[in-house]
């Protein structure tokens, strides 16, 4: 699925960039506000059918002068992971928050309905997790013992760099893809352990990569 979506992203990006280059370069837009979009994540809920990770998120972005798209995102994620031997279980769930900006490199339409963009995000999550069946070894006797950590609490901050594409489907509805590279800035581990998964970030590793798919709706301008 990821390879298929990445192929669509690459082909659509080339098409949109080529189209933008063949048209006369438009003057910079002097109108400040061009609308607000509500975005809903499609990939995260779908993951529950083929992975131990599930989540959902909503996003609001504002179009300023067709050049700047500041945004905020609120989401929820949970995961149930096991080690290769299926003896240790890691459960986590929690909310996460992202804030950032998209910067279009090529656009089409009076309100940048179609665009190829780069962007950045700053993320934060405070979450609970538990570890059951954890096996630990005694350094002297070389004998293992099992211990559970049922009520661990952690926090994390991270950054994301991304490249993406948004295409208008019909009227106020558009579809957007983005490929992301993530890295953690700071992790406040649990009292007795290190979290294996961070809601909103993914598996606790550096760097981390992700593919997102959003469905967007342009909200009505009620002041008109």
Looking at this protein, list some descriptive labels:
mainly beta, two-stranded antiparallel ribbon, 2 helices, 11% helix
The class by helix and strand makeup works out as mainly beta
How many angstroms separate the termini? 42 Å
Counted beta strands:
10
* Domains (count): 1
The ordered H/E elements are HEHEEEEEEEEE
Mean pLDDT: 85
Determine the CATH topology. Answer: Porin
Q: Major beta sheet, specifics?
A: 8 strands, antiparallel, barrel
Shape field: elongated
Uncertain parts: none
CATH architectural label: Beta Barrel
CATH class: Mainly Beta
Task: Give an overview in words.
The chain is mostly beta strands. The protein has a single domain, classed as Porin. 11% of the residues lie in helices and 61% in strands. It has two helices and ten strands. It has helices spanning 2-22, 43-46, and strands at 33-41, 53-64, 69-82, 89-108, 114-137, 144-170, 173-188, 197-198, 202-203, 208-218. It has an eight-stranded antiparallel beta barrel. A two-stranded antiparallel ribbon has the order 8-9. β8 and β9 (202-203) form a beta hairpin. 27% of the residues are buried. The mean pLDDT is 85.
Show the helix and strand layout.
Elements: H1 2-22, E1 33-41, H2 43-46, E2 53-64, E3 69-82, E4 89-108, E5 114-137, E6 144-170, E7 173-188, E8 197-198, E9 202-203, E10 208-218
Antiparallel strand pairs: 1-2, 1-10, 2-3, 3-4, 4-5, 5-6, 6-7, 7-10, 8-9
């Amino acid at each position: 699925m990821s390879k298929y979506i990445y192929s669509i992203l690459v082909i659509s990006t080339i098409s949109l960039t080529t189209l933008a280059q063949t048209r006369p370069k438009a003057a910079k837009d002097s109108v400040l506000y061009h609308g607000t979009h509500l975005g809903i994540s499609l990939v995260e809920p779908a993951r529950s059918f083929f992975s131990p990770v599930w989540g959902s998120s909503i996003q609001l972005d504002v179009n300023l002068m067709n050049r700047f798209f500041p945004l905020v995102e609120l989401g929820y994620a949970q995961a149930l992971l096991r080690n290769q031997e299926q003896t240790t279980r890691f459960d986590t769930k929690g909310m996460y928050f992202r804030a950032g900006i998209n910067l279009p490199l090529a656009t089409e339409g009076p309100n940048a309905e179609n665009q190829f963009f780069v962007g950045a995000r700053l993320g934060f999550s405070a979450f609970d997790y538990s570890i059951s069946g954890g096996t630990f070894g005694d350094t002297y006797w070389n004998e293992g013992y099992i211990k559970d950590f049922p009520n661990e609490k952690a926090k994390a901050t991270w950054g994301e760099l991304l490249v993406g594409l948004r295409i208008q489907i019909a009227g106020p509805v558009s579809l957007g893809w983005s490929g992301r590279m993530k890295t953690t800035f700071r992790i406040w581990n649990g009292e007795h352990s290190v979290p294996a998964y961070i809601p909103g970030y993914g598996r606790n590793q550096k760097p981390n990569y992700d593919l997102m798919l959003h469905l967007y709706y342009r909200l009505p301008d009620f002041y008109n």
